[in-house]
């Protein structure tokens, strides 16, 4: 009855845009490194810095994932998955690092009947109606 799990790759369609604020001096240093050819652009430097920090803290991340039983990657919940959970009398506790999607054909009523809680470190994609119905269960 499990939902589909896919490993995420860093491709344009599989990323989330974030906004950061930098001080003028830090931004100037970033631009200097780009101009000197260390990085192709600001985004390249920021992604590299983030990846370096994630690598530096990899053990702590792994321990947290195991401790909290988080799933990594892309997890898709389709209507048939939720209907199977309802038929089995089960409630889902969705815990994902990456991207969790709830299919567009899942009704708010079905989601409320079958999803006990949602914890997503990354992004959650679902219809506005489903997100609204589950708002008190999304952490």
UniProtKB/TrEMBL annotation:
Coiled coil: none annotated. SUPFAM superfamilies: Ribbon-helix-helix. Signal peptide: none annotated. It comes from the Bacteria. CDD domains: RHH_NikR_HicB-like. This is CopG family transcriptional regulator. It comes from Methylocapsa polymorpha. The lineage of its organism: Bacteria, Pseudomonadati, Pseudomonadota, Alphaproteobacteria, Hyphomicrobiales.
């Amino acid at each position: 009855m499990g939902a589909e799990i896919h490993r995420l790759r860093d491709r344009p369609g599989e990323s989330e845009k974030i906004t950061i604020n930098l001080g003028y001096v830090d931004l100037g240093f970033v631009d200097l490194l780009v101009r000197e050819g260390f990085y192709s652009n600001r985004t390249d430097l920021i992604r590299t810095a983030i990846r370096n920090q994630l690598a530096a803290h990899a053990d702590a991340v792994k321990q947290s994932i195991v401790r909290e039983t988080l799933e990594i990657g892309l997890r898709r919940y389709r209507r048939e998955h939720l209907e199977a959970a309802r038929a089995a009398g089960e409630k889902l506790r969705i815990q994902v690092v990456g991207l969790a999607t709830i299919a567009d054909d899942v009704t708010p009523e079905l989601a409320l009947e079958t999803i006990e809680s949602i914890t997503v470190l990354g992004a959650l994609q679902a219809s506005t109606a489903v997100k609204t119905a589950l708002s008190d269960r999304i952490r």
